[in-house]
Amino acid sequence: MVDVLVIGGGNAALCAALMAREAGASVLLLEAAPREWRGGNSMHVRNLRCMHDAPQDVLLDAYPEEEFWQDLLKVTGGNTDEHLARFVIRESSTCRPWMRKHGVRFQPSLSGTLHLSRTNAFFMGGGKALVNAYYRSAENLGVQIRYDSPVDAVEMDGPRFVAARVGAERIEAKSCVLACGGFESNLEWMREAWGRNERGEWPADNFLIRGTRFNQGVLLKAMQQAGADIIGDPSQSHCVAIDARAPLYDGGIVTRVDCVSLGVMLNREALRFYDEGEDFWPKRYAIWGRLVAQQPGQIGYCIIDSKAVSRFMPPVFPGTKANSLPELARALGLPEENFMKTLQDFNAACRPGSFDHTVLDDCATQGLAPAKTHWARPIDTAPFYGYALRPGITFTYLGLKTNDEAAVHFDGSPSGNLFVAGEMMAGNVLGKGYTAGVGMSIGTAFGRRAGTSAAKAALAARSAHAAA
Fold first, then answer.
1. What is d(CA 388, CA 393) in angstroms, rounded to the nearest whole number?
2. What does the pLDDT read at residue 463?
3. Which residues, 6+ apart, have CB-to-CB distance to 127 below 8 Å?
4. Which of 132, 189, 206 lies closest to 392, judged by CA?
5. What is the mean pLDDT of residues 155-175?
6. How far is CA 180 from CA 176, 188, 210, 231, 249, in A?
7. What does the mean pLDDT of the chain come to?
8. What is the pLDDT at residue 282?
9. What average pLDDT does the segment 366-385 reach?
10. Structural contact between residues 219 and 151, judged by C-beta atoms closer than 8 angstroms
11. 178 phi and psi, to 5 degrees?
């Protein structure tokens, strides 16, 4: 019997496996994906949001605890557990030396991400390099790793973990860490969570999944049925507006289109529906997937002119280009009359100001609903560009309720040997909304804590058995 069983293969699972092994426990990690697709959504990450009170190598200036907390409070609208959120924030300030020890390397922010150079530490080689480094370190430390091993069920004795099942195989362990993601790739569950809208559409049918196809929510559902305490709204997720041409799965971060704050967003009726300049893009980009999901056909169109080009990270697919606004409307298949009226009204409402995309500037519209409160400039300089966007789901927020020991709860009480980390518990901190890099902060903090807690429980059980 192994001491600690880790179910999952992404950042949180790997952090748990490494910490448990460092604490002296024997560890088996089960990854549902084949080796070439290992790592879950962590393959696609870029950075980690980090608290720091002074400059640290790749991080500029300071990003103190209270500012991080206020940023999180704002994007979640207060729908967060402050104690657990502050635990994540404080852990983010001390984890990087440990990450380096396990082969993770950091680099300064590149052009297009300089606005994050104070708050976020970027991984050299991105998420794939981070995942590969952790797997190498885990193998070197003696963690057993099995691929193509989706766990179908978990055997419980009340609140205590007993065994996991992979097909007909039964795997016992003294303790277990659940870190196998949300349910975003389970279309049936997503349809159930979102339901039909007032137009009779199933919005989930038009969602694209930015990450892994293996996050089916099997064990999340199993734990619900086993009586675990659940937290979060099943319709809430890290939901980004991404290029409508992206693949159904694993498009990753390159499918994101980051020019929304520099232009206007229209629905398929060529009408604006929200303030594109509400706040800085890293704080508000993750609201746009949900906003687009609420539009007819779950599609939106970002319209910019040549003044915006080179001011945002270039997306992987080029935009639709036209030399006039009517030509662009026709190329995008939007109603030309509505399109021209919307753009003319917007241009007329823009008031002169000092444009500066690095601050909340004074370029705003006047007398227009919805307003654009910052970075509002007339869209009047050819060539013009349009990007069709659809909701891109990164991970869902419905999860297992936990505490700062990462224990799964049953009827308000923590399990003694079942722990949770990563996207399966992120809803404790993220009731809604998102800010860049915080998913990695949560996964790293709770992955490390879950591994420590699981090892402690397993080693205590081993000692008790030896004494008996």
1. 16
2. 87
3. 11, 39, 42, 43, 44, 45, 46
4. 206
5. 98
6. 12, 18, 16, 16, 17
7. 96
8. 75
9. 98
10. yes
11. -95, 120
pLDDT at residue 315 greater than cutoff 90? no
Specify the DSSP class assigned to residue 358: T
Q: How far apart are CA 307 and CA 385, in angstroms?
A: 11
pLDDT given at position 465? 78
Q: What is the rounded distance in angstroms from the CA atom of residue 113 to the CA atom of residue 239?
A: 20
268 and 295 Cβ atoms separated by less than 8 Å:
yes
Q: What is the pLDDT of residues 98-156, one digit of tens each?
A: 999 999 999 998 766 767 889 999 999 999 999 999 999 999 999 999 999 999 999 99
Contacts with 29 (C-beta within 8 Å, 6 or more apart), sequence order: 6, 8, 9, 13, 14, 17, 138, 143, 144, 145, 146
Residue 204, amino acid? A
Q: Is the pLDDT of residue 434 over 90?
A: yes
Residue 355 has pLDDT above 70, yes or no: yes
Rounded CA-CA distance 211/133 in Å is 20
Residues 6+ apart with CB under 8 A from 93: 50, 51, 52, 53, 65
Ordered structural domains, the chain, with CATH: 2-182+217-236+398-467 (3.50.50.60), 237-392 (3.90.700.10)
- 236 and 245 in contact (C-beta within 8 Å)? no
Pick from 108, 126, 128, 127: nearest CA to 118: 108
